[in-house]
Amino acid sequence: MKKANKAILAKIEAKPEYITDVQNLLTGAIDLANQESGTTTWFSFKLNETTFGIFDTFANDEGRDAHLSGAIASALLSKADEWLSVAPEILKADVLAAKLG
């Protein structure tokens, strides 16, 4: 398994009328994540009725930067004004320790 030194944590707040759309986008985005050679792990999750998130890891800054300018970010940001109550909160992080596999 690839090392995972870099990460992104994104918090996504859906407008109530677009909960299903956001959830479907995040569920379907796994296919896009699987095509990204620089993405080590990728998770989408739901915290409560309207709050979702993405957590993903990368071996290096190049993989992380490629992901941030890739298809998943583009798909989400293209619908942000319509589907989200606030802009996504996207945090870059350094991974201190990980158990993979």
SSE arrangement:
Blueprint: E1 6-13, H1 19-28, H2 30-34, E2 39-46, E3 51-58, H3 61-68, H4 71-83, E4 89-94
Antiparallel strand pairs: 1-3, 1-4, 2-3
Please mark out the parts with pLDDT under 50 across 5 or more consecutive residues, or reply none. none
Order of helical and strand elements: EHHEEHHE
CATH C-level category:
Alpha Beta
| Percentage of residues in strands | 25-35%
CATH topology: Alpha-Beta Plaits
The total number of structural domains is: 1
Question: What integer is the average pLDDT?
Answer: 94
- Strand line-up of the largest beta sheet: 2-3-1-4
Largest sheet: 4 strands, antiparallel
Gyration radius, in Å? 13 Å
What's the count of strands?
Answer: 4
User: How much helix, percentage-wise, in residues?
Assistant: 25-40%
Structural class: alpha+beta
**Number of helical segments with 4 or more residues:** 4
- The CATH architecture classification is 2-Layer Sandwich
